[in-house]
Structures are given as C-alpha cells and as structure tokens.
C-alpha cells in the first residue's frame, strides 16, 4: 500500500543546526531536503533511522512513518547516508545517495535498505561462491502472518540420468528462507510445512540473479495423478516408459497397458515428464487441486535415432517366469528392517547387504555391479552394470536411482552366471528385478 507523501515538519524527530550569517552579513543561499526511509525487504516505512549529510552537522531522525526533513541546507552537493539497527540485522549497509541542493528548492529523496534479493545474494556469497539462489517467505494462507521455524523443501532434477537433488532449510525468525549454491537454469519444485500445515507445491526457475518464491501454509489434502501413454502414430500403449514429476521424488514406469499412477501427491503445480527409448521426450505442466485427482492421456511421437544393438534385444520369455527361476529374493519384510535409513535405491541395495553387489558412483553415474578380483584391483575400471527392471520393464540405472524405496514390495537379485543363462549376453554382469506394491496388486 503506497505511503502518503504528506509531511508535517513538526512531526520529524530531530533538526538541523542553525546556520551562521554569511560573510559580510550576507545570507548563505539555502534549500531543503525531505524524503522517506523504507525497509525494502518488507516494503514498510523505517522509523527511527538516523539520516545525515556526510561531513556536515546536518542530522535528523525519521518519524514513525519513515519521513525526514532538512531545513536551511546551504546550496551544494552532498552525500546522504542513513543508519538503523535493521541494517546491522540484515548484515548490509545502505551506501551513499548523492543529493544536490538548490536555492529555495525542496529536494525529494527516498532512501531504503537493499532489497531482499540483494541481501540474499550477499549472504550467499559467504556460503557458496558458485551458482544462484532461491529465497522467499512462509506465510499463513489466511492471515498472511509470517510463520518462523517452517521447514522448506526444494528439489530439482539434474544430469542426463535425471538425478533428483533435494535440499531442506528452516525459515528464520521473520519467516524468511534461502537456498544458496543452486545450479543456474534449474527448474525446481518447492513446498513448505509446519506442524499439521503445509503449502501447495510450486515451480520456480532458478535464474542468473536468483528467484523468489513464497509459500502459504494451510490445511491441504493430497491429490493423485493417473494416466495412459500411447504411440501417436499407431495408438498402441507404450510400456516401460519413465514417468516423473520433475524436481520431486515421484517416479514410476508405465505398465503393459501404458498406464501409470502417482498417489498422495500434495496439491500444486508440477511438470510431468515422460521419456521412452526411441521417442521424443515430452513434458507437460499439470495443476493438482486440493484433494482432487486428475487423469491424463499422453501420446508420444517417434524420434529417428540409432540404437546400440544390445539395447534392442527382444526377450523371448516373460520376465515373471524368469524371476521364478532362482535368484536371491529380498522380501518386503527384509526391506522394512532397513527402510528407516534408506533414502533411495542405492541405499536400499547397500543396506540389504546382497553378497558381492557393489554400489558406487562412476563419473557421476549410478553404478550397480557385482565385484570381481579385477574390479577390486582396478578401481578405475568402467562400470559393468547389472540389468535393472521395475515390474518386468527394463530401466536404466540412473532412471531408477530416486525411485522411492517404500514403493518396492520385493526384489530379486541374479548373479552374473544366473543372469547370463536367463538373459543371454545382455545379462553377463547380473540383473536386479524390482517389483512394486502397485505392480503386485495389478498381477493378482
């Protein structure tokens, strides 16, 4: 709300010193200065600010509406500064504002603290020399009152494998939060929560100079997304396609009918991305209302690309039949025992301690392989990844990394000898077949 420009000189706290007569009894030509001091971080007037003309005796204090006035200021150019505890709290200085005083003229000057974006940028320089930042406030959805201590989550997808990065922070005593060192150009998804209240999910593009996003907390009910994926040309369903909500932990693959589903999704805006080998990646923005699920139908167009021969191998037996032909089964009960310390599929494989199975990062990529004497001796050996499946659909290791472990019902691990017999040369390094809770219900 704009602040009235009406100014009563009598209301200004403090005054300038009286000027002596000019040399030879002549009066020194003077003018006046008036203005307002504003806290730019909250767009409110700043009362009690000490305003001074540098290297002079002219000093006043802003009134309760942030206004100040200088009378009888000799004509000339001055550097105006102001001081206030708010600047110390923000860890910044306001700098100088140059003012020219003309005879008989009242010069208007507005002063303010640096913007919150500037303050955040300066603070982030001390935390991370690279990247950009996201900042904002957490407010009550009805009263718009700040909610200190709220937890804010921010996630984004990076890399060719679609690795999801997640950060968390807590709003300060004024309800403000910040994330520093974020990749420039990332498309992030954020939400906030406090006790039983939460916000809707919001998307934000991390720009060169940062980005702001505010969250409104209230009582929200989860929503859901279901959909079907098919070929644009022939209309046949596309199975095994990777479907994800960008910047979140929600990831799945389409079943044999091309269907997919996400449950218990907080309301808000999301980017739904679908990738399938041999097809052009497709992304659509979807909005989920409070407690209301949506259904989508998406068609994929083929993209002419050259595939490696091993990628286009067609299996002759049903995967379910192969899964019954031996292998080490890790049950839902086994998974439940390690779930508390499990964040992703890599943790799940490590914590269930499958003998000989090794999980590591190789040149930034997620690698799951069986150890051998050569692997132990040659630590720089390229990854010899096992085959990986979700509900009988083959997926790339990077594509499954952030699949939620609590969605897994059980999985079966085949050692290289077993996998080679079942899958041919493509399984020479082993295989892991994951079965989800939804997939189990669908098979009944």
Question: What is the CATH topology classification name of the largest domain?
Answer: Ferric Hydroxamate Uptake Protein, Chain A, domain 1
Our count of helices gives: 9
Helix fraction, binned, reads 10-25%
Report the principal-axis shape: elongated
* Total number of domains: 4
Question: Which structural class fits the helix and strand makeup?
Answer: mainly beta
CATH H-level superfamily title of the largest domain: TonB-dependent receptor, plug domain
Question: Can you walk through the features of this model?
Answer:
This protein is mostly beta strands and 444 residues long. It has four domains: 9-112, Immunoglobulins (Immunoglobulin-like), CATH 2.60.40.10; 128-217, Sandwich (Immunoglobulin-like); 225-300, Immunoglobulin-like (Sandwich); 326-443, Ferric Hydroxamate Uptake Protein, Chain A, domain 1 (Beta Complex), CATH 2.170.130.10. 14% of the residues lie in helices and 40% in strands. The chain is built from nine helices and 31 strands. The strands form eight sheets. Strands 10, 11, 13, 14 and 15 form a five-stranded antiparallel beta sheet that branches. Strands 25-30-31-28-29 form a five-stranded mixed beta sheet. A hairpin with a 5-residue loop joins β19 (242-245) and β20. The radius of gyration is 31 Å and the shape is elongated. The two termini are 61 Å apart. The relative contact order is 0.08. Mean pLDDT is 78; it is low at 1-21, 304-320 and 373-379.
Give the secondary structure arrangement, pairings included.
Elements: E1 30-39, E2 44-45, E3 50-53, E4 59-61, E5 67-74, E6 76-83, H1 85-90, E7 97-101, E8 106-112, H2 116-127, E9 132-140, E10 151-158, E11 163-170, E12 176-182, E13 187-194, E14 197-198, E15 202-205, E16 211-212, E17 215-217, E18 223-231, E19 242-245, E20 251-253, E21 259-265, E22 268-275, E23 282-288, E24 294-300, H3 319-323, E25 328-330, H4 332-338, H5 345-351, E26 357-362, E27 365-370, H6 373-377, E28 387-390, E29 393-395, H7 397-400, E30 408-414, H8 416-423, E31 431-436, H9 437-443
Parallel strand pairs: 1-8, 9-16, 9-17, 18-24, 28-31
Antiparallel strand pairs: 1-2, 1-5, 3-4, 3-6, 6-7, 9-12, 10-11, 10-13, 13-14, 13-15, 18-21, 19-20, 19-22, 22-23, 25-30, 26-27, 28-29, 30-31
